[in-house]
Design brief:
Low-confidence stretches: none
Structural class: alpha+beta
Strand order of the largest sheet: 2-3-1-4
Number of strands: 4
Number of domains: 1
Distance between the termini: 27 Å
Largest sheet: 4 strands, antiparallel
CATH architecture: 2-Layer Sandwich
Number of helices: 3
Order of helices and strands: EHEEHEH
Mean pLDDT: 94
CATH topology: Alpha-Beta Plaits
Radius of gyration: 14 Å
Length: about 110
Amino acid sequence: MQTMILLLCTFPDAQQARQIATAMVERQLAACVNLLPGVQSIYRWQGQVEQSTEVLAIFKTASVLYPALAEAVAAAHPYELPELVALEPSAVADAYLAWVLAAAPPAVSSTP
């Protein structure tokens, strides 16, 4: 049975998040992307504690598309080390899962 994932990824601003999210939906690597602005991130980077205001993107796609989606997001991402965290929901409404799989069909080529 086909499943879906949620790929979490933060961006430095809404413009870059929107641009990459739109490209992934257009390429059918993601069915939908939610953008949540105003995320406060506190993290250790290169030995220092940093703080940033970021935009969190939640990409929804077929599980089998994770490698292609992660590669495409990483290639377009402005960060040296982008956050790419995939979560597999334990339960998804049947109708919503069917829509995600139809909107980001696993058989679609990941080439631009």
